[in-house]
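explain this:

___
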Amino acid sequence: MDKKRDLLLQLNIVRKPNTNLVILRAVLSETYTRIDFGYVATDEYHRGGWIKMSPDSYLRTNSSEAIYKLTHAENIPLAPDHLHFESNKDWHYFSLFFEPIPKRSCKIDLIEVEHPEDTDFNYYGIIIDLNNAEEIIKP
């Protein structure tokens, strides 16, 4: 694969123990790593609750001590702001952009907070397998 082209990985990883957050895909670029999510509001709250992302979120790979900082988010507010749902049936899609990770097969962790609660958006051991990546051809 051409290292200068963006790579798309379909992931579809459900968060445990809460299953209302799904990592849909990752895009590896020379200038960023993008993680796309789907979130369904919970029926724990009458109007579905709320979501936000910590501006201190980051990625780390299993092969390095380096961290890759969140650079910006699309369609989700950064804390202390919140997005409030209108019902407990709402779906919401959002993307997080991080500094670019190396384009190689590895495992990554997405860390929102160091010592997470069940409601925090931490994921561990996300498999980045370049054998399953598709090149994104830009016009």
Q: What stands out?
A: The chain has one domain: 6-136. The first strand starts at residue 6 and ends at 14. The chain is about 0% helix and 45% strand.
